[in-house]
């Protein structure tokens, strides 16, 4: 009887040991599979980060190429001989011009250095975050072209792109300088291709968000800052009405 009891205890101990080993093996296998899943997740995250980095590098190179193109076009325009400037408009003519532009939803003023700036709000010209002219924008540029080819014929013209202070987030442009440059160049090309202005008269420039005319803390102020200014470069010896 004692021998049978001893054998029973040995059998029970062996069963418990086997059960413990099986349990331990299952635990280790689960831990191994969990580590494999973690490694797979990390590999996926690394792949996504690499793709995002490659995309950012490509966008940066594209932006640099655009800036190089703009600089080349401006250099080409500056190297061409300018047309002889027409006589400065008389005071009454200047007043009539400003009045007509304001009736078209634009503003114009004489700058501190004696030039004439025609302001076209970007809300008229462009969709948000876009460099392409809208229908009303094309009409506004056409009105400006008539003035540049009429009363201001022969003057050199600098086309400046301005933006509000909001940083670029969703559009393809790197920053507000690039957006301003693209919009200025769009207006320049329209003046040349659609309205026949001599390209050697025109210079595209960007000011980005650096020259605001209103506070960027309000939507109304931002709307005023989003604009294109067509600056007529008046000769220094010309007498213009204040």
Report on this model:
- The protein has 242 residues and is an alpha+beta fold.
- It folds into 2 domains: 1-79; 83-233, OmpA-like domain (60s Ribosomal Protein L30, Chain: A), CATH 3.30.1330.60.
- It contains 6 helices and 5 strands.
- It has helices at residues 2-79, 91-103, 122-125, 135-149, 176-193, 219-225, and strands spanning 107-110, 116-121, 156-162, 202-208, 227-233.
- The protein has a 5-stranded mixed beta sheet with strand order 1-2-5-3-4.
- Strand 1 (107-110) and strand 2 form a beta hairpin.
- The chain is elongated.
List keywords for this structure.
60s Ribosomal Protein L30, Chain: A, 56% helix, 5-stranded mixed β-sheet, 2 domains, alpha+beta, 242 residues, 6 helices
SSE inventory with pairings:
Elements: H1 2-79, H2 91-103, E1 107-110, E2 116-121, H3 122-125, H4 135-149, E3 156-162, H5 176-193, E4 202-208, H6 219-225, E5 227-233
Parallel strand pairs: 3-4
Antiparallel strand pairs: 1-2, 2-5, 3-5
Give a short summary of the structure:
With 242 residues, the protein is of the alpha+beta class.
């Amino acid at each position: 009887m004692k021998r049978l009891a001893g054998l029973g205890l040995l059998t029970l101990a062996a069963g418990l040991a086997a059960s413990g080993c099986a349990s331990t093996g299952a635990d280790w296998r689960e831990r191994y599979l969990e580590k494999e899943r973690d490694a797979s997740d990390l590999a996926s995250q690394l792949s996504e980060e690499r793709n995002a980095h490659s995309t950012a590098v490509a966008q940066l190179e594209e932006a640099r190429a655009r800036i190089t193109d703009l600089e080349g076009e401006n250099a080409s325009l500056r190297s061409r001989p300018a047309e002889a400037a027409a006589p400065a408009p008389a005071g009454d003519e200047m007043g009539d011009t400003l009045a007509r532009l304001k009736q078209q939803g634009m503003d114009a003023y004489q700058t501190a250095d004696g030039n004439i700036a025609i302001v076209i709000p970007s809300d008229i010209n462009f969709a948000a975050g876009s460099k392409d002219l809208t229908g009303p924008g094309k009409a506004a540029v056409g009105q400006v072209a008539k003035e540049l080819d009429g009363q201001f014929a022969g003057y050199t013209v600098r086309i400046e792109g301005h933006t509000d202070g909001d940083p670029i987030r969703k559009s393809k442009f790197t920053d507000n300088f690039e957006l301003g440059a693209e919009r200025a160049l769009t207006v320049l090309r329209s003046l040349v291709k659609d309205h026949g202005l001599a390209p050697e008269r025109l210079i595209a420039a960007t000011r980005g968000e650096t020259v605001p005319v209103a506070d960027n803390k309000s939507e109304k102020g931002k709307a005023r800052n989003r604009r294109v200014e067509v600056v007529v470069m008046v000769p220094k010896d010309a007498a213009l009405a204040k």
